[in-house]
Amino acid sequence: MYRSHTCGELRASHIGTEVSLSGWAAKSRDKGFVVWIDLRDRYGLTQLVFDEERSTPELLALARTISRETVIQVKGSVIERASKNDNIATGTIEVLVSELTVLNNAKLPPFTIEDETDGGEDIRMKYRYLDIRRNPIKNNLIFRHKVAMEVRKYLSDQNFIEVETPYLIKSTPEGARDFLVPSRMNEGQFYALPQSPQTFKQLLMVGGMDKYFQIVKCFRDEDLRADRQPEFTQIDCEMAFVEQEDILNIFEGLTRHLLKEINGVDVAEFPRITYDEAMAKYGNDKPDIRFGMEFGELNTVAQHKDFGVFNSAELVVGIAVPGAANYTRKEIDKLIDWVKRPQVGAKGMVYVKCNKDGTYKSSVDKFYDQEDLAKWATATGAQKGDLICVLSGETNKTRAQLSALRMEMAERLGLRKADEFAPLWVIDFPLLELDEETNTYHAMHHPFTSPKPGQIELLDEQPGAVKANAYDLVLNGNEIGGGSIRIHDKETQAIMFKHLGFTPEEAKEQFGFLMDAFQYGAPPHGGIAFGLDRLVAILGGKETIRDFIAFPKNNSGRDVMIDAPATIDNEQLSELNIKLDL
Amino acid sequence: MYRSHTCGELRASHIGTEVSLSGWAAKSRDKGFVVWIDLRDRYGLTQLVFDEERSTPELLALARTISRETVIQVKGSVIERASKNDNIATGTIEVLVSELTVLNNAKLPPFTIEDETDGGEDIRMKYRYLDIRRNPIKNNLIFRHKVAMEVRKYLSDQNFIEVETPYLIKSTPEGARDFLVPSRMNEGQFYALPQSPQTFKQLLMVGGMDKYFQIVKCFRDEDLRADRQPEFTQIDCEMAFVEQEDILNIFEGLTRHLLKEINGVDVAEFPRITYDEAMAKYGNDKPDIRFGMEFGELNTVAQHKDFGVFNSAELVVGIAVPGAANYTRKEIDKLIDWVKRPQVGAKGMVYVKCNKDGTYKSSVDKFYDQEDLAKWATATGAQKGDLICVLSGETNKTRAQLSALRMEMAERLGLRKADEFAPLWVIDFPLLELDEETNTYHAMHHPFTSPKPGQIELLDEQPGAVKANAYDLVLNGNEIGGGSIRIHDKETQAIMFKHLGFTPEEAKEQFGFLMDAFQYGAPPHGGIAFGLDRLVAILGGKETIRDFIAFPKNNSGRDVMIDAPATIDNEQLSELNIKLDL
User: Fold this and answer.
1) B380 and B316 in one domain?
2) Pair (A508, A532) in one structural domain
3) Whose CA is closest to A378, among A320, A326, A325?
4) A168/B43 touch (CB, cutoff 8 Å), yes or no
């Protein structure tokens, strides 16, 4: 037995007890006649004490040699602390050590194992096992476990069955890039790692499993953006004999359960807005609604004067930034520079200060009088003291730019509060999305998404206008889940594949098994998938996912700790019947 | 809303209620004036009724067109059945249908969707989604979910944290073959899929996670034996600051919890035997102890006469097969043929019939008298009426042969009862195993297993004699879990790698990150991993794992349903900087 208690367990009620503890020497203080060591494990810190009066000289001498992160075991008795520490749970006691054993020595760690460490991202990743000893990372991983347990509990209680789907599947080249796995036993052939268990969960519905879920790793070989990982975890769900309403209710329930159990927050019924509404109001299909600053469209009130920029614009649109009328000329210029950065891409910005006295001062006073500007204020909901920021141009681009500005201003004003949770459903997504480069349509959600009833006829004439039975769950400006009602008959699926540019042969080659399955009695079905990494981060009050993943990869897809990927033996290549082609 | 109730839900108490149901038409009977359809979903069967008196002619006509596996929705009222069916939960009621909607048509399935199907293994795998509709497979998957939930519940309650470890890791060519994944972003380099999260869970212990578990997919590119899968699921566990005893206790607790919660069986404390004892008593390191037939070594009582076969044998060993003394000469000859099959490999078999009258009749009466044979009976524990079967030869081979015979006889005698559970721990495994082909030693468990204290010095002189802190959990003749106390210091690990034939450079190249980690304060730790597929099958009273896996692969590693692996585009190959080399 290495320990009778953990380092987070002892309290005043244990005073007088003989205990044994094991852990890491977190910190020590040597006052000459007395030495204290903070002993740390996953559960907490316990102060150990050695002194000239009560410890043998050998023991005291040994205690002095214990450097940071040494793994030790001690025996001793729990005593009351002279100076209590209210900041830690064990702060009323300490352990007077009678026996000290070094279980393993430790080199000086490359960064401090403290909540606020001196280690940068790179070194923390290389020594991730040391980083995990730090409370913030350790607690994130424990938090993630709790979230996953609650997800399973909720769904299992709702009669969902977790079914494991295979990891070695078949490549489907449309969509994102697959990771491929050469098959040794089937020469010249490859498996692919799943981008999601989409087709398998649909087959489970054909198989009558009725309610399926799985917390499962998925893989995408994409060029990684800042906060993406080549392998990521999904809460993948599917239900049979459901309409959109059934799915929204169940998974609103799941999300509410998590917010309640994990965050202790009660959330009212989730608002629902359509995709079109979200784009018009927030310029974004995953709006953060913890704060206002809804878009006010100004075309009708701004396109009647001689201001050519607005008159030639497809869209003139503004937001009222609360309390920002006192921005100086310099601050506003910096803001204009900000929207003109290539990442945002606006050509410029018109502003209106809504003065406290009810007057307006704008950058376009030459063209617009006070009465005009009052209409802008009404359209944007601006109050006295607000700053109206107006962008104009092509509709989609302008909305995206104003959305970026809206988020930036919210960030600056501290309106994106980590402990506030504002979920909403965005529904009625378009079925297809135009790829402007190739001028072809591809599936906005995926090729298995069902068009709205009666809209399939529109596919030929107005493909971009067809709406899907597709929905996203948005939390605090992040898409945490997305799903759809699926196509469940072979004919509709064939029409979809045709519109996505598949030849009948390609469709059969890649998805023949699914279309075959639809012929043997496929029930109506639909589902949703949540990104667990992001969900956990947001529930944890953060937006970066990396510190909620035990062993993340960097932006080049490398694990710098184990140094993977790596070159391999020629023998291994030849067994797989492949060779390098650099 | 597709349904107000499931097909397994309605009872006599619902009589008079208007309901809607959805599901598959499992079966229909047409008596002319009345048509019954059994409507099936995951939850059960409900009988639908249409008749000339109460249904419209159109409805009755439509009902007659519904073929097997058609997906339908009905509305109607719950009525009492004229002839009740005690075999199903809904057997007291039926639904008088007022509205029938065909949700999806179904082609005739290639095999019957019945508990006993007419479909062979191949066709069932090709149409696995139809196979899953059958109760035996569906119930296995639900059973698997329950087992996994109970595992998580138990371990989480014991303060274990489920941590997800990466799937894209680094190849370690010793041990089994890895599946490899070419990296597009890191040209010429490859990830490997994990054979187990072994090194990561050890790093989590270095990271202070203290108690880790994960239900996780693992991958081995081996030539597949009958009941192996290239991807399989492990319950992977690790604990810090533990000795073997702590681990045995915790996971005996887990197994007992599962037997109680899942099977309703209370099991006493698990017996523990050493590896050496298991080999001597059962010829097998995973003995089935649901029945006796323990080995009796006969060297001392059989090597004093002129029977050259025994005198020249390293081992003479027998078992007493209960009640088999009445085997005819012909039956015994067949048994001798059975042990001489190449799969078993014995050269012959000596037998002794222990007659009811206390006399013995053996195939070696020429050499042994009644007194000799009585000693054999004592050594094998044979009773009157038993048949003693004796094999001889080289120790290891003879034990393996007699073990095969023991299992075969138990099978024939019905002693391997699926609803009886006899777990045991096999401990003190050898650290190293001699590979007779290459005459080199390799790790019996894995290179991270710790030798027994004080035995590391034996490594040079008697490598085969060194015992490890390694243990297996055996249930009904199957290894369901195995683990060890790990090495936790760099020096010992380096010695192990040396003895396994690694150069220091190779050790550093492949496991440098782990040996580095050991220098920063690694705690003593150990763990265990359970094979979930097999565990679930055994708890479910079966020994083949395939029907407890939703989408298994065949013996060539193929998924015949989706037809994977498959050839891929040259474009995909070239993006990955590889080409085929057939």
Assistant:
1) yes
2) yes
3) A320
4) no
Q: Which CATH number covers residue A171?
A: 3.30.930.10
Tell me the pLDDT of chain B averaged across its residues: 95
Residues in B closer than 8 angstroms to A115, CB to CB, are none
Q: Running DSSP on this structure, what letter comes out for residue B547?
A: G
Residues A137 and A547 sit within 8 Å (Cβ to Cβ): yes
How far apart CA B117 and CA B125 sit, in angstroms, is: 13
- The shortest C-alpha distance from A520 to chain B (Å) reads 4
Please say which residue of A372, A393, A415 terminates a domain.
A415
Pair A391, A441 in one domain: no
- Per-residue pLDDT, B437: 84
**Structure confidence at residue A456 (pLDDT):** 86
Nearest CA in chain A to B244: A1
Query: What's the CA gap between A205 and A214, in Å, rounded?
Result: 14
* DSSP assignment letter at B220: -
* CA A171 to each of CA A120, A223, A449, B552, B562: distance values in angstroms, whole numbers, following the listed order: 38, 18, 19, 18, 10
Please enumerate, as own/partner, the contacts of B345-349 that have beta carbons within 8 Å and a separation of 24 or more.
B345/B397, B345/B401, B346/B391, B346/B393, B346/B398, B346/B401, B346/B405, B347/B393, B348/B309, B349/B389, B349/B390, B349/B391, B349/B405
pLDDT of residue A63: 97
Residue of chain A with shortest Cα separation from B514:
A562
Domain housing B203: 139-272+424-548
A428 is written with which tokens? 């009625």
User: Which 3 state secondary structure label does DSSP give A325?
Assistant: coil
For B141, nearest residue in chain A (alpha carbons): A163
Bond from prior residue into B182 cis (ω within 30 degrees of 0)? no
From the list A171, A210, A557, the residue facing B566 with the nearest CB is A171
ipTM above 0.90, yes or no: yes
B210 within domain boundaries: yes
Task: Return the residue of B nearest to A521 by Cα.
Answer: B106
Test A521 with B24 for CB contact under 8 angstroms.
yes
Q: What is the pLDDT of residues B431-486, one digit of tens each?
A: 999 888 888 888 888 899 999 988 888 888 898 899 999 999 999 999 999 999 99
CB hemisphere CA count around B80 (13 angstroms): 3
Closest by Cα among B537, B470, B514 to B232:
B537
Q: Strand runs (DSSP E) across B348-416, as ranges?
A: 350-354, 360-362, 387-393
Q: Could you give the C-alpha distances from A213 to A398, A425, B189, in angstroms and in order?
A: 39, 20, 34
Task: Find residues 61-120 of chain A whose CB sits inside 8 Å of chain B.
Answer: 69-71, 73, 103-107, 109
Is there a contact between B470 and B429 (Cβ–Cβ < 8 Å)? yes
Q: Do B566 and A189 touch (CB under 8 A)?
A: yes
Burial (Cβ within 10 Å: 0-12, 13-18, ≥19) of residue B222: middle
Asked if A209's CB is within 8 angstroms of B141's CB, the reply is yes
Retrieve residue B10's tokens. 């309605």
pLDDT in tens, A533-549: 999 999 999 878 999 99
* pTM listed for this prediction: 0.96
Same structural domain, B191 and B244: yes
Whether A565 and chain B come into contact, CB under 8 Å, resolves to yes
> Measured between CB atoms, which of A42, A243, A582 is closest to B188?
A582
- B210 CB neighbours in chain A (<8 A) are 6, 41-43
Q: Which two tokens stand for residue A103?
A: 């279980």
Percentage of chain B beyond pLDDT 90 is 89
Which residues 237-296 of A are in CB contact (within 8 Å) with B? 241-243, 246
> Looking at residue B454, what is its pLDDT?
87
**Among B69, B206, B208, whose Cβ lies nearest the Cβ of A521?**
B69
Chain A nearest-CA distance from B429, in A, is 22
Residues A299 and A241 in one domain: no
Facing residue for A577 by CB, picked from B204, B558, B582: B582
pLDDT given at position A30: 95
